[in-house]
């Protein structure tokens, strides 16, 4: 994504985030943004897109307690690009998160691997790239991970498990 005009939010995501905002959970976005490292978009543009996203989340009563991104290209040897643990560890340190009692909702195998690597409970959602990632769960030994249709279902799962 290279502009705020390209930002697409699933219609049910904002109300689900507003529901989660009523809980005690910290809500954190952890994202790989390799377009910066590959020179496809500037860090400033990504910051504008993320600011726009935060505004859209806040408008109906949602909140984000932290946003952490890896700007590096896939071939860079950084510690922050998922599946490596850097961003999750940074968020845990800065926000004083208890990773063993945290959840990571994602749509890729790298999301799940990052979660498992630091002891966070993962959930795979079918939206985004999740349907494709679900086909690899069995071959990667992650068949036990909840695979849910979308963010609202994942949030309900988290809240019901609290």
Protein described:
The chain has 162 residues and is an alpha/beta fold. The chain has one domain (12-161): Rossmann fold, CATH 3.40.50. It has helices at residues 13-21, 34-37, 43-58, 86-95, 109-117, 130-134, 151-161, and strands spanning 28-32, 66-70, 103-106, 121-125, 147-148. It has a 3-stranded parallel sheet. A two-stranded parallel sheet has the order 1-2. The chain is globular and about 40 Å long.
CATH topology: Rossmann fold
Q: What is the CATH level 1 assignment? A: Alpha Beta
Q: What percentage of residues falls in helices of 4 or more residues?
A: 25-40%
N-to-C order of helices and strands: HEHHEHEHEHEH
Termini distance?
A: 34 Å
Binned strand content? 5-15%
Describe the SSE topology.
Blueprint: H1 13-21, E1 28-32, H2 34-37, H3 43-58, E2 66-70, H4 86-95, E3 103-106, H5 109-117, E4 121-125, H6 130-134, E5 147-148, H7 151-161
Parallel strand pairs: 1-2, 3-4, 4-5
List keywords for this structure.
alpha/beta, single chain, 162 residues, three-stranded parallel β-sheet
Brief rundown of the structure:
The chain is an alpha/beta fold. The chain has helices spanning 13-21, 34-37, 43-58, 86-95, 109-117, 130-134, 151-161, and strands spanning 28-32, 66-70, 103-106, 121-125, 147-148. It has one domain: HAD superfamily/HAD-like (Rossmann fold), CATH 3.40.50.
